Amino acid sequence: MLKGVYLGSFAAILASVLLAWALDTLMGESSGVARELLEGWTMFLAVAVLFYVSNWMLSKADNIAWENYISGKVQQSIDSKSQWTLIFAAFIAVMREGAELILFYEAAFTGGMNDPAYITYGILAGVAVLIAVWVCFRYFSVKLPLRAFFMFTSILLFLMCISFMGKGVVELTEADVITGRTVIPAMKGFSIEILSIYDRAETLIPQIMLVIAAVWIMLPHIFKRKPKSNPDKN
Fold first, then answer.
1. Whole-angstrom Cα distance, residue 40 to residue 107?
2. With contact defined as beta carbons under 8 Å apart, do 221 and 58 qualify?
3. What is the pLDDT of residues 57-88, one digit of tens each?
4. Helices (H), the chain
């Protein structure tokens, strides 16, 4: 049934490309207030998706939890004895990642990170790392330290959420959806551009709320006990 996995995966990649083209076209045809609104809400949607993905990854950070999740999904498809079920499962898995990637890049590029050279370097570096990881998995039976990898990735996604939240508020402020422009004198103009942290209450308050939510979510995963292995699989 391996062909079904590849078929579903390639179909999802094609669908992701079409989705990216449609969103980019929609952005390109918008102008003025309409574009600022679209960019602002795209930022907020990216925050919601990335925040959910970060929490989901933390819940699968232990090797046993991840193996149980993957084997359960595969077994569910096999037990149904339907190749279309497996194709659909592979399609959904890859399409979910494609949609996340599209939102991430669209939000990042909208925020001003649109230098073609840096974009190319970033994509090539990501592809190179993925190929290296796959080769290690496939030919050297190397196991990825899932807990450390997922924890690092989740923290990175949380930081991107903070950046996108700030940019989203700025875009909606320019579109006059958010009318407040409250400067915090105590910050004395302090800002961190890469994280979209500015000396304004409208951007800082939702970012602080995100930080509190992220810490609240991460602490139980950091201190929780490792799950026991399933004795039926031994």
1. 9
2. yes
3. 777 666 666 677 767 766 766 665 667 777 88
4. 2-29, 32-59, 63-79, 83-110, 116-140, 146-174, 201-223
Residue type, 127: V
Q: Which of these, 41, 17, 168, 180, lies nearest to 101 by C-alpha position?
A: 17
Alpha-carbon span 190 to 193, nearest angstrom: 10
Q: CB-side exposure of 142: number of CA atoms within 13 Å?
A: 10
CB 196 within 8 A of CB 167: yes
CB within 8 Å of 183: residues ≥ 6 apart = 199, 200, 201
Backbone φ/ψ region at 82: left (φ over 0), alpha (ψ -120 to 50), beta = beta
Structure tokens, 151: 């924890």
Of 119, 203, 213, the residue nearest 167 (C-alpha): 203
Q: Pull the structure tokens for residue 55.
A: 């929490």
User: Could you tell me how many residues make up the chain?
Assistant: 234
pLDDT tops 80 at residue 210? yes
Q: Classify 137 as helix, strand or coil.
A: helix
* C-alpha–C-alpha distance, residues 200 and 183, integer Å: 5
Rama region for 196: left / alpha / beta (φ>0; ψ in -120 to 50; rest): left
pLDDT of residue 15: 92
Angle between helices 146-174 and 201-223 (to 10 degrees): 170
**Per-residue 3-state assignment (H helix, E strand, C coil) for 175-223:** CCCCCCCCECHHHCCCCEHHHCECCEHHHHHHHHHHHHHHHHHHHHHHH
Task: Take residue 98 and report the two structure tokens written for it.
Answer: 């494609």
H helix or E strand, kind and range, residue 115: none
